[in-house]
Amino acid sequence: MEKLKDPTVWDLGGQDRLRTSWATYYRGTHAVIAVIDSTDRDRIGIMKDELFRLLPHEDLQNAVILVFANKQDLKDAMTPAEITDALSLHSIKNHDWHIQACCALTGDGLYDGLGWIAQRVTGKATS
Protein backbone atom coordinates (compact mmCIF):
# COMPACT_ATOMS: atom_id res chain seq x y z
CA MET A 1 0.00 0.00 0.00
CA GLU A 2 1.10 3.49 -0.75
CA LYS A 3 1.79 5.74 2.22
CA LEU A 4 -0.10 9.01 2.37
CA LYS A 5 2.28 11.84 1.60
CA ASP A 6 2.56 14.73 4.00
CA PRO A 7 -0.79 14.34 5.78
CA THR A 8 -2.31 17.66 6.73
CA VAL A 9 -4.86 18.27 9.45
CA TRP A 10 -7.08 21.36 9.60
CA ASP A 11 -9.14 22.43 12.61
CA LEU A 12 -12.14 24.06 10.99
CA GLY A 13 -14.24 24.72 14.06
CA GLY A 14 -15.42 28.16 14.79
CA GLN A 15 -18.12 30.71 14.70
CA ASP A 16 -20.82 30.93 12.04
CA ARG A 17 -19.00 33.59 10.04
CA LEU A 18 -15.95 31.32 9.60
CA ARG A 19 -17.92 28.35 8.26
CA THR A 20 -18.33 29.82 4.80
CA SER A 21 -14.56 29.49 4.28
CA TRP A 22 -14.38 25.78 5.20
CA ALA A 23 -14.73 24.56 1.60
CA THR A 24 -11.38 26.10 0.69
CA TYR A 25 -9.74 23.35 2.76
CA TYR A 26 -11.64 20.33 1.36
CA ARG A 27 -9.46 19.47 -1.65
CA GLY A 28 -7.62 16.19 -1.12
CA THR A 29 -9.54 15.38 2.06
CA HIS A 30 -9.60 11.72 3.02
CA ALA A 31 -11.42 12.01 6.34
CA VAL A 32 -13.63 14.40 8.24
CA ILE A 33 -13.53 14.25 12.03
CA ALA A 34 -16.40 15.85 13.90
CA VAL A 35 -15.92 16.24 17.65
CA ILE A 36 -19.22 16.39 19.49
CA ASP A 37 -19.64 17.65 23.04
CA SER A 38 -21.83 14.80 24.27
CA THR A 39 -23.30 17.01 26.99
CA ASP A 40 -24.40 19.82 24.65
CA ARG A 41 -27.91 18.80 23.64
CA ASP A 42 -28.80 22.37 22.68
CA ARG A 43 -26.26 22.54 19.82
CA ILE A 44 -26.35 18.99 18.43
CA GLY A 45 -28.79 20.20 15.75
CA ILE A 46 -26.27 22.80 14.59
CA MET A 47 -23.67 20.08 14.15
CA LYS A 48 -26.14 17.96 12.18
CA ASP A 49 -26.91 20.89 9.88
CA GLU A 50 -23.22 21.64 9.30
CA LEU A 51 -22.37 17.97 8.70
CA PHE A 52 -25.10 17.58 6.09
CA ARG A 53 -24.10 20.88 4.50
CA LEU A 54 -20.52 19.73 3.89
CA LEU A 55 -21.07 16.08 2.93
CA PRO A 56 -22.33 16.74 -0.63
CA HIS A 57 -19.26 18.85 -1.52
CA GLU A 58 -17.49 17.34 -4.54
CA ASP A 59 -14.08 17.45 -2.82
CA LEU A 60 -15.42 15.29 0.01
CA GLN A 61 -16.98 12.59 -2.19
CA ASN A 62 -14.53 9.92 -1.03
CA ALA A 63 -13.99 11.13 2.53
CA VAL A 64 -14.83 8.92 5.49
CA ILE A 65 -16.59 10.47 8.48
CA LEU A 66 -15.53 9.94 12.08
CA VAL A 67 -17.65 11.38 14.86
CA PHE A 68 -15.94 11.58 18.22
CA ALA A 69 -18.58 11.54 20.98
CA ASN A 70 -16.46 13.44 23.49
CA LYS A 71 -16.98 13.88 27.24
CA GLN A 72 -18.28 10.35 27.74
CA ASP A 73 -16.82 10.52 31.25
CA LEU A 74 -19.60 12.90 32.33
CA LYS A 75 -22.81 11.50 33.80
CA ASP A 76 -25.15 13.63 31.66
CA ALA A 77 -23.46 12.74 28.36
CA MET A 78 -25.55 11.51 25.44
CA THR A 79 -24.62 7.97 24.44
CA PRO A 80 -23.12 7.31 21.02
CA ALA A 81 -26.48 5.78 20.03
CA GLU A 82 -28.32 8.99 21.03
CA ILE A 83 -25.83 11.08 19.07
CA THR A 84 -26.14 8.77 16.06
CA ASP A 85 -29.90 9.37 16.10
CA ALA A 86 -29.60 13.13 16.74
CA LEU A 87 -27.18 13.50 13.81
CA SER A 88 -29.15 11.10 11.57
CA LEU A 89 -25.92 9.23 10.83
CA HIS A 90 -27.80 6.18 9.55
CA SER A 91 -29.08 8.31 6.68
CA ILE A 92 -25.51 8.83 5.39
CA LYS A 93 -25.25 6.42 2.47
CA ASN A 94 -22.42 7.86 0.34
CA HIS A 95 -19.70 7.89 3.01
CA ASP A 96 -18.30 5.33 5.41
CA TRP A 97 -18.91 6.69 8.88
CA HIS A 98 -18.18 5.68 12.46
CA ILE A 99 -19.04 7.12 15.85
CA GLN A 100 -16.49 6.67 18.62
CA ALA A 101 -17.09 7.30 22.30
CA CYS A 102 -14.15 9.19 23.75
CA CYS A 103 -12.81 11.36 26.51
CA ALA A 104 -10.24 13.89 25.37
CA LEU A 105 -9.02 14.38 28.95
CA THR A 106 -8.00 10.75 29.39
CA GLY A 107 -7.49 9.82 25.75
CA ASP A 108 -10.00 6.98 25.97
CA GLY A 109 -11.29 6.12 22.50
CA LEU A 110 -9.03 8.48 20.56
CA TYR A 111 -6.69 5.82 19.18
CA ASP A 112 -9.65 3.61 18.33
CA GLY A 113 -11.22 6.37 16.23
CA LEU A 114 -7.99 7.31 14.50
CA GLY A 115 -7.27 3.63 13.87
CA TRP A 116 -10.64 3.33 12.15
CA ILE A 117 -9.65 6.20 9.84
CA ALA A 118 -6.20 4.74 9.18
CA GLN A 119 -7.72 1.43 8.07
CA ARG A 120 -9.87 3.22 5.53
CA VAL A 121 -7.55 5.83 4.06
CA THR A 122 -4.23 4.00 3.87
CA GLY A 123 -3.18 3.78 0.27
CA LYS A 124 -5.47 6.49 -1.05
CA ALA A 125 -3.55 8.87 -3.27
CA THR A 126 -3.66 12.54 -2.40
CA SER A 127 -5.08 14.89 -5.01
Automatic annotation (TrEMBL):
Location relative to the cell: Golgi apparatus
Q: Which residues bind GTP?
A: 14, 70-73
Tell me which Pfam families the record gives.
Arf
Q: Which GO terms describe its biological process?
A: protein transport; vesicle-mediated transport
The reply to whether Electron transport figures as a keyword in the UniProt entry is no
Keyword match GTP-binding: yes
UniProt-listed Gene3D superfamilies? P-loop containing nucleotide triphosphate hydrolases (3.40.50.300)
Q: What is the superkingdom listed in this entry's lineage?
A: Eukaryota
> Matching InterPro entries, A to Z?
P-loop_NTPase, Small_GTPase_ARF, Small_GTPase_ARF/SAR
Q: Where is the signal peptide?
A: none
Query: What keywords are assigned to this protein?
Result: ER-Golgi transport, Golgi apparatus, GTP-binding, Lipoprotein, Myristate, Nucleotide-binding, Protein transport, Transport
Listed GO molecular functions?
GTP binding; GTPase activity; phospholipase activator activity
GO CC, alphabetical: Golgi apparatus
PANTHER family linked to this entry: ADP RIBOSYLATION FACTOR-RELATED
Q: Which family does it belong to?
A: Belongs to the small GTPase superfamily. Arf family.
Q: What is this protein called?
A: ADP-ribosylation factor 1
